[in-house]
């Protein structure tokens, strides 16, 4: 399965979504407070979002999924 990151961080209500590239289904969604928490933890590097290097994006998607799951378990 391949994923795509859809991030709109420079708007009044920022969000970041991980989408299934084949179906367009939203697999994970991070909004205001979750994005702030992720930035505070150092887990969101804006330079990584702009890269086209597959290994960097793969690791970023992995970390975003882990963050979402950990947050859901709280």
Description of the molecule:
- There is one protein chain.
- With 74 residues, this protein is α+β, with helices and mostly antiparallel strands.
- It has one domain (3-73).
- Helices cover 45% and strands 23% of the residues.
- The protein contains 3 helices and 3 strands.
- Strands 1-2-3 form a 3-stranded antiparallel β-sheet.
Name the descriptors.
about 70 residues, about 45% helix
Question: Would you spell out the secondary-structure blueprint of this structure?
Answer:
Layout (H helix, E strand, L loop, with lengths): L2 E6 L6 E6 L5 E5 L1 H9 L5 H4 L4 H20 L1
Antiparallel strand pairs: 1-2, 2-3
Question: What would a concise description of this structure say?
Answer:
Helix content is 45%, strand content 23%.
Largest sheet data: 3 strands, antiparallel
Radius of gyration in whole Å, from Cα? 12 Å
Distance between the termini: 27 Å
**Given the helix and strand composition, which structural class is it?**
alpha+beta
What multimeric state do the chains show?
single chain
Overall number of strands: 3
Order of helices and strands: EEEHHH
Helical fraction: 40-55%
Average pLDDT taken over every residue: 92
Strands of the widest sheet, in order across it, are: 1-2-3
**Which residue ranges are poorly predicted, with pLDDT under 50 across at least 5 consecutive positions?**
none
> Which of globular, elongated, flat, extended, rod-shaped describes the shape?
globular
Tally of separate helices: 3
């Amino acid at each position: 399965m391949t994923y795509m990151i859809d991030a709109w961080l420079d708007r009044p209500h920022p969000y970041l979504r991980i989408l299934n590239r084949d179906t367009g289904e939203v697999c994970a969604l991070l909004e205001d407070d979750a994005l702030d928490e992720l930035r505070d933890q150092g887990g969101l590097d804006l330079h990584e979002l702009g890269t086209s290097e597959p290994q960097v994006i793969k690791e970023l998607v992995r970390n975003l999924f882990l963050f979402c799951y950990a947050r859901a378990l709280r």
